[in-house]
Give the backbone structure.
Amino acid sequence: MSLALGTSATLLVASLTAPALAADPPPKADPQRGAELMQKQMSQMTPELVERAKALSPEIKQFLMHVALRHERRSDTLTLVQVMQEILADYQTIGAAIATDNGAMAADAARRLALHRLPRGGMLPYLPFDKVTDEGLSVLPAMEVAVEGNATKLAEAAEQGDMIGAANYYGAVTTGCVACHNHFRGQPGATAYTPRLRK
Ligand code: HEC
């Protein structure tokens, strides 16, 4: 069952996002800062998860570092569910703004969504343990394009008053939410019972 969902999510995302590889050109790499951020995330994980994270390929580690560097709001207390609730609030604000022809409101909320906060310990502690592998995480760049890339395009369209374009990007963002949930989430709320964060 979950295998079937994972496959369909991967296909969905692949069909959506080819041929782009990332939401925008990689920021000027600051490997030292990136390494510090990864080190901090690992200090918040259980030893079991740290072992998993260390075994990931250099490409996946590089991508996780890119995510940590790109998102400048990082919480030491909030969980992924709390961050997702914040993302949901921004997502709903975008919908309201598009429906009321308010390009400025849509653009602000879309940029907040694209540069959402990161939870305590990064993303890995909240994903199913069997997905913390090179294969399981290989979909992440496509998810970034679908959600953050399209949210950025949505902001630009909305600012130019192109609300039909913004509405289309809103649909593409939504497909990204659905695909990532199909791949990683499983039963909503279930990760609360399998904590992989240090207390
Ligand atoms: C990178 C993958 C990913 C993307 C993209 C993503 N989510 Fe999530 N989301 C998750 C995971 C994983 C969970 C479960 C977290 C947990 O239970 O600890 C989750 C949980 C949630 C929750 C908490 C309630 C529930 O249903 O589990 C909400 C609300 C939510 N996501 C909204 C959104 C919205 C809206 C979008 C798109 C704008 C989105 N998410 C995009 C991975 C993602």
In short: DSSP finds nine helices and no strands in the chain. Confidence is low (pLDDT under 50) at residues 1-22.
